[in-house]
Write a structure and sequence with these properties.
The complex is a heterodimer of chains A (432) and B (265).
Chain A lengths: L1 H11 L1 H7 L12 H22 L4 E4 L5 H5 L4 E3 L1 H10 L3 H10 L8 H10 L15 E5 L5 H13 L3 E4 L11 H22 L5 H23 L11 H12 L4 H20 L10 E6 L7 H10 L2 E5 L13 H9 L7 H14 L4 E7 L3 H5 L1 H12 L3 E6 L9 H24 L1
Parallel strand pairs in A: 1-2, 1-3, 3-4, 5-6, 5-7, 7-8
Helix pairs in contact in A: 3-11, 3-12, 5-7, 6-7, 9-14, 10-12, 13-18, 15-17
Chain B lengths: L6 E7 L4 E7 L3 E8 L7 H12 L7 E7 L11 E2 L2 H12 L5 E5 L4 E7 L2 E7 L8 H10 L4 H9 L12 H14 L3 H23 L5 E4 L6 H11 L3 E2 L7 H18 L1
Helix pairs in contact in B: 2-8, 3-5, 3-6, 4-6, 6-7
Classes of the chains: A alpha/beta (432), B alpha/beta (265).
């Protein structure tokens, strides 16, 4: 009787449901040779580090936004713990590595990238396909967050290696002050002198200028790549930027990155001409995704987006790895402008501009448990975006690398709520 | 020629209860039912059976159905599903015209919805923490050895509400036990528990942006002392409805009506 009740309601409307929900053909992602090249460049950087180690050369670990131009002037091989931690998390070894760190006594409240890296620094191996050698020195620039400071100090102590520290103060005004710029410049020289001691080589100013030129050109091209999201519909899935930005993090001073970006740009131009996209479904809504993705749960993250034709056409995180400047002062300024170092006004305006330029219908915010500094001011930013942009905003709890901090049921409810709010808004606009 | 009425069904399958309603032409409530069994149980089947046992409408007359709540995607439960966020917003507008803020405290969720010009414009939910939810009240009632239904009257009789932490359900339980051993009256403890719920809700409401009129939905809205505590902390009038627990199901039934009209157009 009870089962019949449910099935009777369903039976009458089977026809309706069939009409509404006829299964579409499984969408295929368009192949991109340029994207493959970009992946290969990052992979090579890992191989180069191993090769350097085998040759008895020094290998460093660096934070993602340490000015790579400085170490490039010494011809050093450097790898990036954050990039590896993201790969570890995406390949579902994040929980195990975090648990190892916690069992060693590190707090579960620490950033999951840090916990994964500390486990590695203690000598534990990951099951992920990527690996890099232990460091002979570490490069720490805390423009990303203050977490880096203690993280890298701990690694340096564990591995008994020197730490080159570049301190970027949080600035509570728009743009770094001249005093901060002078502070940065003075530290640049300290870093250079320290690296001279570590490597036994003299700072090569010509190599530094070349590195600056390459990094600038790569940044210019990277910003151009990101700007293609402004097209409606976009010739790319915004999620692709989270993959391609790995090259800007790990290989910003390699000229082959710029060459691959040029090829990527050509692919996007072709997509625009042909009405195609790397997005494997029709773009129905455009959103900003605020925060680092939940790497262990990418499929889950993508599910409601795919089901509702949502393209992430705005992310502040990806273009933030492009640093364009024309002199030393400007170089210091741009390295100060990161999501973790700017005041709430600058951070809000930065995203609002992006949302306007990239024409978003809504915003999805990731309250990233691993990044309390970033997530902490999100609720206030949300309110400001909603007021200034007039678009619906939804937030969900998650974590960039610790899978335990994400709940699919919670995420689906919020994502669905966002879709419904965007749909209502669109319907109201069309009726008006 | 007189148009035949259209009957649509909304079913809200929550964590602890299942509710459903039938609307006539998206407006008139012609049937409702509630069972104390939620997602993952026979709750959905039982509530539908209870509904049609008493409704003046036969199941064959239902044109379209929408499910909401955590159990909304269970196989065969309805023609389509929508989030409880949208459904509660829609249902709240049915219950209180011009409502601007909706506070829903369910079994495991607290949500605060901001509504503007009839549209859901913002929302906040509690995350990974049951402090302040119906489950929290159930646990506290158990510690106090009373039923959840008795908590309201107990709190209303309080002379001096006890201080209870709102941060963690488990720690709050420890505090209640500690208060009991100190000889604090159960009425004062109940009132303290309600103020703890209110502070959790107030925080969320201010994050959304509190605008009146405010409607409270969900089972906890039947607790007059919780409502009073929220009014004191938010410094505004909180309205409730006899149908507060059905807000999600009503919203789902309204959406079902809108979807059916589109299909028939």
């Amino acid at each position: 009787m009870i089962g019949k009740v449910v099935s009777n309601i369903m039976a009458e409307t089977t026809e309706t449901k069939a009409a509404e929900t006829a299964a579409p053909a499984k969408p295929k992602k368009k192949a991109s040779p340029a994207a493959e090249k970009l992946k290969a460049i990052v992979q090579k950087s890992y191989e180069d580090a191993w090769d350097a180690k085998k040759r008895g050369e020094l290998v460093g670990w660096s934070t993602s936004k340490f000015p790579c131009e400085i170490y490039a002037a010494f011809g050093l091989n450097v790898v990036y713990p954050e990039n590896l931690a993201a790969a570890v998390a995406a390949q579902h070894d994040g929980e195990r590595m975090c648990s190892i760190a916690e069992d060693l006594g590190y707090d579960a409240d620490l950033c999951a990238y840090e916990r994964i890296n500390l486990a590695l620094a203690h000598g534990y191996e990951t099951t992920a396909s990527k690996h890099f050698p232990q460091p002979d020195f570490v490069l720490c620039c805390n423009n990303g967050c203050n977490c880096f400071t203690k993280w890298y100090e701990t690694v340096a102590r564990l591995r008994n290696v020197p730490i080159v520290m570049l301190d970027v103060p949080y600035h509570n005004q728009t743009g770094a002050s001249q005093a901060q710029v002078e502070y940065m410049k003075a530290q640049f020289w300290d870093c250079i002198h320290q690296l001279e001691e570590i490597t036994g080589k003299k700072f090569d100013e010509k190599k530094f200028e070349e590195a600056c030129a390459v990094a600038n050109e790569n940044s210019r091209l990277w910003h151009k790549v990101c700007d293609y999201c402004q097209y409606e519909p976009s010739p790319l899935s915004g999620f692709d930027l989270f993959n391609h930005m790995a090259d800007m993090i790990t290989c910003r001073c390699r000229p082959e990155v710029g060459e691959a970006f040029k090829e990527l740009i050509a692919e996007y131009d072709e997509n625009i001409k042909n009405g195609e996209s790397t997005l494997p479904f029709k773009e129905n809504y455009r959103i900003m995704l605020e925060g680092i993705p939940c790497w262990p749960h990418l499929k889950n993250l993508f599910k409601p987006l795919k089901e509702n034709g949502i393209n992430v056409t705005a992310v502040v995180y990806a273009p933030a790895f492009g640093f364009e400047y024309s002199n030393m002062d400007e170089m210091c300024q741009v390295y100060c402008k990161t999501a973790g170092a700017v005041c709430i006004e600058e951070g809000t305006n930065w995203r609002e501009e992006l949302c306007r330029d990239n024409k978003v219908d809504g915003i999805l915010v990731h309250y990233n448990r691993s990044c309390k500094a970033w997530s902490g001011y999100m609720p206030e930013m949300q309110r400001r975006w909603q007021k200034e942009l007039g678009v619906p905003v939804a937030a969900f709890d998650g974590d960039q690398a610790d899978p335990r901090n994400f709940n699919m049921a919670n995420y689906e409810t919020r994502a669905q709520g966002l879709v419904e709010a965007m749909a209502e808004r669109r319907a109201a606009k069309e009726e008006a | 020629m007189k148009t035949l009425p259209m009957y649509t069904l909304g079913i809200d399958v929550g964590s602890t209860t299942s509710k459903c309603v039938i609307l006539k032409d998206g407006k008139e409530l012609v049937g409702k039912a509630l069972v104390d069994a939620g997602t993952g149980t026979h709750g959905p089947e039982e509530v539908l059976a209870a509904l049609f046992e008493n409704a003046a409408v036969d199941r064959s007359q239902i044109r379209y159905s929408v499910a909401t709540g955590y159990g909304r995607q269970a196989e065969g439960i309805a023609n389509s599903d929508m989030s409880e966020l949208s459904c509660h917003a829609k249902g709240a507008q049915y219950l209180l015209k011009g409502v601007k803020t909706v506070i829903d405290i369910g079994g495991q969720d607290i949500k605060v919805l901001g509504i503007d010009n009839g549209m859901l414009v913002s929302f906040q939910m509690n995350d990974k923490c049951a402090a302040g939810t119906g489950r929290f009240l159930e646990l506290m009632a158990k510690v106090l050895r009373v039923s959840v239904e008795e908590l309201s009257d107990m709190g209303m009789k309080s002379k001096k509400p006890a201080q209870i932490s709102s941060t963690c359900t488990v720690f709050a339980e420890s505090e209640v036990i500690s208060q009991l051993s100190k000889g604090t009256s159960v009425n004062d403890i109940a009132a303290g528990v309600h103020r703890s719920v209110a502070s959790k809700v107030t925080g969320l409401a201010h994050r959304v942006g509190l605008l009146e009129p405010v409607l409270m939905t969900g089972g906890v809205s039947k607790n007059r002392d919780v409502v009073r505590a929220i009014e004191e902390q938010m410094k505004c009038k909180i309205q409730t409805s006899e149908l507060s627990q059905y807000a999600g199901a009503i919203g789902a039934a309204i959406y079902a009506y809108q979807k059916a009209k589109k299909l028939d157009a």
